[in-house]
């Protein structure tokens, strides 16, 4: 298996094509990338912006260039010595009329050859929740008619430009008669005769006949656990792997599958031992990928979370929390907030999935003659789902593996002893179902319950935490990231070092990301916002002053001020994270460009919080009031605020850029395969999607890579433009290519600092045989930076030094960044190093 030394993530669609990527190959080669990491390349709906809504898994997307364009891109990559990793989506497909399989299921119902390809409950009619109102209301309003499908000529129920095919037996032999139908009662009767029924999208959460991806009704679950379905959906994928065009696969949302382990074993068997395979999986704190999965690891969300231990000031974060509490008016009980978010998801957003589980449980109770009231089982099921601390367990028809069984018992005990403990007999009954301790007669129902339960806990966790709680609680936005946990915790270098040792042991070939198409903000925005924990009182004073300056633009609505103080705090912090480092307060075009990006983020943040507005029921007056407040913040006429905001932000910008370089160096030298998200080799101050999926300026990136930059020689412009970051990345990526064993297998050795600034440095080494690498990078330097990054004050790491283990001592090293040759004894003194600089020494 060829393990990547570094990957570069590219988003297709939105103008990015295979031929354009082929043109980027020389740049990627100069940057030091070993593998292109591509977003899904298979055919998706014509209006798709991301490609995860696949309509044909066996056709390469014509919009991106089709098979011919793909082959040209592969040739360009291979001629340059670069490999290709594909993002594949086995869990779901688009529930779109452009999906021929889905369309066939609509037309033929349970008799379709693809009826069992999708995870559909065929005990009732297939629900199609794509109307803006009920079927009856849409019909009455004249929005539904019978017309010939312009693509097939067959009769269909037309809803605006969507044509839902009628079952052949309901029109064949009387086609002209059906096409002439205008009577609404007759159209309604025709609708009743179909194997499907049109319904409002609002009814999907509690009345859906198919498994969806999270809350997205436009994505239907695929039964890839069926070998025939696996074969049908992986034919082209495997052809590309076997032909040598594709070197690796990234499996999207592996936890959505009925049996992830069995799927991965089949994929490994079919793809072969040389295919590099990673999975998108969010790990809970201290959770590890199951050791028996035949993969190289995850796509690295847990690595992002680990970096907070390096860059968050654990001593001062309590002051930031206090300042936030003062603004909101009361201390935040995060455990209670998490419970509230999970309750909302369970009772409302996933009500249908919950009802399915409850129905299965009661059926098992009936089969096994277990006398339990439905209300008691309902309460126990609710508490069990809410208490789950990780995405899922991995039970099969045989029951739960040991690791999952231990997890279930811990969760059940937590529920049993909680303030909301349900009836113990109901809880015990559910745990027996999940563990497989039921009668053989109830075995099939228990397996179905176990799979459905496991397929719900993941979406429930994601939507509760990442897409609700992280938009409600905004004390430190940098911590509200995919893969992170919302409960307050301690931060320490020791914890980071421990996690890197475990990472080397458990998944040394996993991807290490800092930005992705799904992260809540770009890596450099996060790096900047970490610095708020270093100067919490200063930040709180700024927010208080800015709120006062803009207080006249707070609206008073019937349900309270808009925005409330907690939302104001969020707005100023989010704006601080995304503010371009060179934006001048009088730059009207720059302010307009920022507003165009920031307003959609604010709307999304308000709706995801689900407090005063929601995707399902928007509060237009509230949203308008908050968006008008934001417009006021960024209007060029608001110069007093803009100038103050920009000036106050400068020290946070400088410290954030140091953080950015430190987290980049760690990513490129710690265990794991560094993944560079498109454009993040420079500076990425993006917001949540769709902002983070904007195409970078590749022409500018290519031009910027020429020359030679190090922290010592960099100008202020090099820091602010991202040129320095890009050049450090290129230097280290080429070093990784030259020393693959050192980075893949080399021991990870934490190094201890001593002296006046011992707490302001992170140091570690990688050692493999005679090869050694020493990494020393600054952290928590907000108070040490004054003025320009290029010419910092003569602040030195006074009396600060790094002790070197015997394996590292008494050797000659070359500084990768400066080129200097250094002979070391058993320690390295930092007295001559600028406080914004890093040191990377490789054995000479």
TrEMBL record:
<feature type="domain" description="Glycosyl hydrolase family 13 catalytic">
    <location>
        <begin position="12"/>
        <end position="382"/>
    </location>
</feature>
<protein>
    <submittedName>
        <fullName>Malto-oligosyltrehalose synthase</fullName>
    </submittedName>
</protein>
<dbReference type="InterPro" id="IPR006047">
    <property type="entry name" value="GH13_cat_dom"/>
</dbReference>
<dbReference type="GO" id="GO:0005992">
    <property type="term" value="P:trehalose biosynthetic process"/>
</dbReference>
<dbReference type="GO" id="GO:0030980">
    <property type="term" value="P:alpha-glucan catabolic process"/>
</dbReference>
<dbReference type="GO" id="GO:0047470">
    <property type="term" value="F:(1,4)-alpha-D-glucan 1-alpha-D-glucosylmutase activity"/>
</dbReference>
<dbReference type="InterPro" id="IPR013797">
    <property type="entry name" value="Maltooligo_trehalose_synth_4"/>
</dbReference>
<dbReference type="InterPro" id="IPR017853">
    <property type="entry name" value="GH"/>
</dbReference>
<feature type="region of interest" description="Disordered">
    <location>
        <begin position="503"/>
        <end position="522"/>
    </location>
</feature>
<dbReference type="Pfam" id="PF00128">
    <property type="entry name" value="Alpha-amylase"/>
</dbReference>
<dbReference type="InterPro" id="IPR012767">
    <property type="entry name" value="Trehalose_TreY"/>
</dbReference>
């Amino acid at each position: 298996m060829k393990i990547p030394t570094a990957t570069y993530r590219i988003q297709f669609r939105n103008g990015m094509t295979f031929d354009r990527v082929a043109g980027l190959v020389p740049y990627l080669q100069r940057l030091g990338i070993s593998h292109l990491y591509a977003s899904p390349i298979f055919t998706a709906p014509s209006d798709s912006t991301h490609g995860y809504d696949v309509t044909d898994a066996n056709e390469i997307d014509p919009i991106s260039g089709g098979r011919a364009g793909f082959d040209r891109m592969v040739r360009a990559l291979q001629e340059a010595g670069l490999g290709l990793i594909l993002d594949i989506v086995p869990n779901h497909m688009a529930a779109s009329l452009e999906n021929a399989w889905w369309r066939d299921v609509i037309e033929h119902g349970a008799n379709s050859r693809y009826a069992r390809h999708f995870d559909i409950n065929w005990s009732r009619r297939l629900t199609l929740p794509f109307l803006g109102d009920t079927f009856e209301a849409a019909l009455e309003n004249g929005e539904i008619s019978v017309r010939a499908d312009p693509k097939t000529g067959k009769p269909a129920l037309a809803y605006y430009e969507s044509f839902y095919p009628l079952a052949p037996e309901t029109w064949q032999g009387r086609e002209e008669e059906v096409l002439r139908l205008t009577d609404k009662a007759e159209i309604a009767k025709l609708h009743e005769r179909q194997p499907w029924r049109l319904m409002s999208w609002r009814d999907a959460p509690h009345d859906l006949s198919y498994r969806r991806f999270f809350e997205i009704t436009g994505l239907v679950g695929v039964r890839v656990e069926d070998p025939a379905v696996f074969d049908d959906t992986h034919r082209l994928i495997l052809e590309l792997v076997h032909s040598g065009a594709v070197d690796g696969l990234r499996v999207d949302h592996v936890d959505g599958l009925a049996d992830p382990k069995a799927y991965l074993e089949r994929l490994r068997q079919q793809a072969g031992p040389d295919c590099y395979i990673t999975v998108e999986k969010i790990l809970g704190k201290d959770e590890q990928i199951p050791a028996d999965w035949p993969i190289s690891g995850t796509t690295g969300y847990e690595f992002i979370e680990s970096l907070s231990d390096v860059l968050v000031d654990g001593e001062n974060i309590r002051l930031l929390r206090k300042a936030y509490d003062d603004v909101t008016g009361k201390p935040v009980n995060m455990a209670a907030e998490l419970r509230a978010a999970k309750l909302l998801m369970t009772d409302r957003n996933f009500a249908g999935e919950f009802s399915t589980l409850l129905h299965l449980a009661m059926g098992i109770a009936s089969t096994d003659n277990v006398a339990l009231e439905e209300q008691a089982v309902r309460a126990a099921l609710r508490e069990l789902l809410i208490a789950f601390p990780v995405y899922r367990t991995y039970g099969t028809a045989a029951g739960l593996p040991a690791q999952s069984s231990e997890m279930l018992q811990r969760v059940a005990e937590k529920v049993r002893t909680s303030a909301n403990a349900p009836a113990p007999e109901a809880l015990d009954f559910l745990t027996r179902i999940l563990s497989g301790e039921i009668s053989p007669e109830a075995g099939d129902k228990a397996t179905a319950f176990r799979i459905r339960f496991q397929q719900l806990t993941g979406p429930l966790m994601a939507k509760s935490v990442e897409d609700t709680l992280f938009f409600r609680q905004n004390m430190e936005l940098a911590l509200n990231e995919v893969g992170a946990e919302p409960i307050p915790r301690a931060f320490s270098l020791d914890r980071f070092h421990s996690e890197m040792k475990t990472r080397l042991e458990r998944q040394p070939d996993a991807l290490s990301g800092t930005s992705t198409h799904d992260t809540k903000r770009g890596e450099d925005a996060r790096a900047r916002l970490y610095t708020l924990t270093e100067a919490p009182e200063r930040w709180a004073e700024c927010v208080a002053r800015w709120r006062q300056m803009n207080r006249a633009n707070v609206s008073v609505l019937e349900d309270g001020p808009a925005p409330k103080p907690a939302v104001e705090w969020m707005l100023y912090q989010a704006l601080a994270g995304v503010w371009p480092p060179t934006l001048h307060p009088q730059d009207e075009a720059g302010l307009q460009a920022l507003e165009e990006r920031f307003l959609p983020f604010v709307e999304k943040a308000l709706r995801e919080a689900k407090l005063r507005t929601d995707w399902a029921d928007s509060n237009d007056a509230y949203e308008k009031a908050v968006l008008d407040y934001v417009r006021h913040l960024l209007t060029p006429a608001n110069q007093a605020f803009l100038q103050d905001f920009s000036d106050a932000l400068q020290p946070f910008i400088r410290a954030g850029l140091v953080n950015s370089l430190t987290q980049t160096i760690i990513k490129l030298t710690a265990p794991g395969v560094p993944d560079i998200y498109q454009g993040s080799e420079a500076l990425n101050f993006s917001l949540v999607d769709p902002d983070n999926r904007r195409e970078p300026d590749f022409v500018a990136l290519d031009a910027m890579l020429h020359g030679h930059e190090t922290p010592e020689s960099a100008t202020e412009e090099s820091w602010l433009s991202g040129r320095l970051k890009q050049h450090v990345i290129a230097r280290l990526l080429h070093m990784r290519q030259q020393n693959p064993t050192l980075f893949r297998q080399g021991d990870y050795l934490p190094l201890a600092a001593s002296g006046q600034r011992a707490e302001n440095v992170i140091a570690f080494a990688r050692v493999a045989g005679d090869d050694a690498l020493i990494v020393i990078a600054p952290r928590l330097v907000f108070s040490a930076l004054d003025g320009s990054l290029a010419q910092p004050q003569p602040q030195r790491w006074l009396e600060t030094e790094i002790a070197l283990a015997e394996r590292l001592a008494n050797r000659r090293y070359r500084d990768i960044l400066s080129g200097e040759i250094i002979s070391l004894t058993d320690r390295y003194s930092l007295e001559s190093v600028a406080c914004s600089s890093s040191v990377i020494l490789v054995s000479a």
